[in-house]
Each structure stands twice: as structure tokens, then as C-alpha cells.
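thought: user wants a sequence for this fold. calling inverse folding tool.
action: design(structure=
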């Protein structure tokens, strides 16, 4: 078996999804990792809907630095481009999604016990 420990690469940003390039390399059917669309006036609303659909409304989430794997899309919602698969414009993930959004809550500061 081929050593794939060096193949780190992309991870899926969907909470609860454990897919990563290093883990899924060479699996069949193949799993691809797609970028969020660029934040342009034409794509802004769709991009925001993608973030909501993958339950990543946490403040520090930056779609420009994350990927979504093909396990969350119907095959008809994906297009093949010269660089691999991409999400068809306006399409949203609908498979294997979490039920709740990731919430990042700041804990109150710890207080020192009274002696």
C-alpha cells in the first residue's frame, strides 16, 4: 500500500465530517474538495447561503480558507472544470449535513477562589 502520510492537503469544513485529502486519497468513489466561490457581487448571496448551509456561522470562519467535500452535494450539483470539480452556481449542499450550527462561545473569565 502506498504511503500517503505526506498528503495532508484539504479538509472538509462541515462540522462532523472527517474527510480530508490525506484520509480519502485513492478512495472510490473519489472525494474532491471544492473551494467556496469568490466573494464577488454576483456570488455574495450564494456564498453566504453556502456558509449557512454547512452550519459554519461562527465568527472566525473564513470561507476563503476552507473547502467542502463532494460527500455533501448531489452529483448533479457539481461541474467538471479544467481544474477538477466545482459547485454549480447557485447550488447548495444537501447531503450529510449537521443539524446545528457551530457556535463559538467565549467563557466568562475565571475568578480566583476566595480564601
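)
observation: tool returned 115 residues.
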Amino acid at each position: 500500500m502506498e504511503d500517503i502520510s505526506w498528503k495532508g492537503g484539504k479538509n472538509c469544513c462541515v462540522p462532523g465530517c472527517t474527510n480530508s485529502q490525506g484520509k480519502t486519497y485513492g478512495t472510490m468513489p473519489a472525494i474532491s474538495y471544492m473551494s467556496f466561490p469568490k466573494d464577488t457581487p454576483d456570488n455574495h448571496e450564494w456564498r453566504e447561503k453556502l456558509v449557512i448551509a454547512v452550519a459554519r456561522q461562527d465568527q472566525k470562519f473564513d470561507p476563503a480558507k476552507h473547502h467542502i467535500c463532494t460527500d455533501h452535494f448531489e452529483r448533479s450539483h457539481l461541474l467538471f472544470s479544467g481544474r477538477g470539480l466545482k459547485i454549480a452556481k447557485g447550488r447548495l449542499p444537501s447531503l450529510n449535513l449537521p443539524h446545528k450550527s457551530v457556535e463559538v462561545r467565549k467563557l466568562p473569565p475565571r475568578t480566583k477562589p476566595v480564601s
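thought: summarizing for user.
answer: Here is the designed sequence. Residues 21-87 form one domain.
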